[in-house]
Amino acid sequence: MHLKLSALLLASSVLAGCVEPTSAPPAQSTPVGPSASDEARYTRVVSRMEPVIERECVARVASNVNCDFAIILDEDPAKGSNAYQTLDRNGRPILAFTAQILPEFQNDDELAFVLGHEAAHHIAGHIAETRTTATTGAILGGAIAIVLGGGQSAVDIGMDLGTTVGARAYSKDHELEADRLGAILTQRSGYNAIRGAQFFERIPDPGDRFLGTHPPNAQRIAVVTETVQGL
Description:
Blueprint: E1 2-4, H1 36-60, E2 70-74, E3 83-87, E4 93-98, H2 108-123, H3 126-147, H4 152-168, H5 171-188, H6 193-196, H7 217-230
Parallel strand pairs: 1-2, 2-4
Antiparallel strand pairs: 3-4
Signal peptide: 1-16
Cofactor: Zn(2+)
């Protein structure tokens, strides 16, 4: 269901699959909003992909997982270019796009691939996995601080560090898994995932940093290409 952000309260603080801006806007610049053609593309792609995404979700996940996606366009002009997946307080999956990201897409395939990628995070259960590893990391970090004889401040630091490490432990794997499934969702919706993945060529490359949240862009493009060729 396509909704505006004001219609929902996003209760979850855990996000998956954030797409960063292609570049930081100059200070005090006026954000460039989407054109009528950008908004038409968004509506067209969402209408075409949503039933495919929900059908694939039902086919792939347990019966108790919510597959009723709410696809949201956040029209706040102050928000930066971004796309992400989260859950509302009732566990309903939210796929959110800010208005500022719409002009970043050069064609329908790019928007479709990003939409498929974000949906894939929910279908693959990445938010739940991240919460589990973050909680485990926090417990281990606090326990290590206690064993080493640290006080409460040391325990707090250990838990914070453990949370960060735990949350990022499988982040790159999650992104690549979402790229693979996102490519399948894109193709099954009638779009070209390889062409869509060219979006990665224009966003900052995170490289292969230790505990980074995203894999190198070249690796992601290669995964999408391999997946489509395999289909």
